Amino acid sequence: MNLSFREKSLWLMFVSFVGAYGYYFVTVLPARATDILPHQVVLFVFTVVLLVIMQIAGHIVIAVVDRRSETDERDKLIALKGTRNGSFILASGVFFALCAAVYTEGNFVFAHVLLGFWVLAQLVEIGSQLYLYRRGA
Amino acid sequence: MGKSSGHITNDIRALRVQHGAMTQQDLADRVGVTRQTVNAIEGNKYSPSLEVAFRIARVFGVPLERVFQYRDG
């Protein structure tokens, strides 16, 4: 499969998001605390740092392997469609997070519903773009 | 006025062959888009902007209608 620089970049972001936030949720969610605990905040910061490092290192490797990093009008159109799809998920997440804030005790559920939907929105945005690059836009 | 259902086809592959077996990458470089975009246009998966369509026609030195055709149905 012949991938453009942009597609490689999207795959890197998709895999790093799944890996980093997958690790975070698998570690934190079984605790089911009422409020977010200090060590969970530390783990979240670690997750974000890990994500940034993975993406910077990955993009350096991609840039070395594939020197053609230009974008054009089709890239912009696909990015816009991906953002639109992701925004629907994010809007739903805000609604469900507000419900969680009203109906559950503490901040644990609220924060993780919001974070979960944000991650899902990112994955839908990136996944939509990967689909459109293959199926046409 | 009803909305007609048509689609755009193109002769880019044939024109590339006629122009010394020009590669998709060569055409992409001259038009200013990525090779993947040329591939998508050629495969009728993406309809380019008018600007890119005119640039493609200019590379081949032919009118726009020689490169792109609009077909009903």
Task: Describe the global form of chain A.
Answer: flat
Q: How many structural domains does the protein architecture of chain B include?
A: 1
- In percent terms, what proportion of residues of chain B is strand? 5-15%
Please state the structural category of chain B.
alpha+beta
Q: Report the major sheet of chain A.
A: none
Q: Please tally the helical runs of chain A, counting DSSP H or I stretches of 4 or more residues.
A: 4
Overall 3D shape of chain B: globular
CA gyration radius of chain A, whole angstroms: 17 Å
Order of helices and strands of chain B: EHHHHHE
Please state the second-level CATH architecture of chain B.
Orthogonal Bundle
Q: Look up the CATH topology of chain B.
A: 434 Repressor (Amino-terminal Domain)
**Rg of chain B from C-alpha positions?**
12 Å
Number of domains of chain A: 1
Q: Characterize the main sheet of chain B.
A: 2 strands, antiparallel
Work out the helicity level of chain A: over 70%
Task: Please state the average pLDDT score of chain B.
Answer: 91
Order of helices and strands of chain A: HHHH
Ends apart, CA distance between termini of chain A: 18 Å
CATH superfamily descriptor of chain B: lambda repressor-like DNA-binding domains
**Unreliable spans of chain A:** none
